From TrEMBL:
SUPFAM superfamilies in the cross-refs: YefM-like
Family assignment from sequence similarity: Belongs to the phD/YefM antitoxin family.
Protein name: Antitoxin
Entry superkingdom: Bacteria
Taxonomic lineage: Bacteria, Pseudomonadati, Verrucomicrobiota, Verrucomicrobiia, Verrucomicrobiales
InterPro entries: YefM-like_sf
Length: 89
């Protein structure tokens, strides 16, 4: 098992990365006290994680679920804005 300090890890991460690629385990120390262990990802799990695709929320469907097909009049919108302003302060 290889040993690195927190400072070594921060300043020489490429060295740690190379050790991990070779299959080494690394003990991270801070002021001589072990604080963490690093190990390479196992070969079985490499590349097997499914990629997660970000899906945008359907804001239009949410709006319709809340409000339906309702369309506010200009007076209703103005009244809602005034009510919000009164409650903000």
């Amino acid at each position: 098992m290889k040993t690195m300090t927190v400072r070594d890890l921060r300043n020489n991460f490429s060295k740690a990365e190379a050790w991990l690629a070779e299959g080494e385990e690394i003990q991270i120390e801070k002021r001589g006290v072990p604080v963490a262990y690093l190990s390479a990802k196992s070969s079985e799990s490499k590349g097997e994680e499914p990629k997660r695709e970000f899906v945008m929320p359907d804001f239009e469907a949410r709006r319709k679920r809340i409000w339906g097909d309702r369309v506010f009049s200009e007076e209703e919108v103005e009244a809602m804005r005034e009510a919000e302003e009164r409650h903000l302060f």
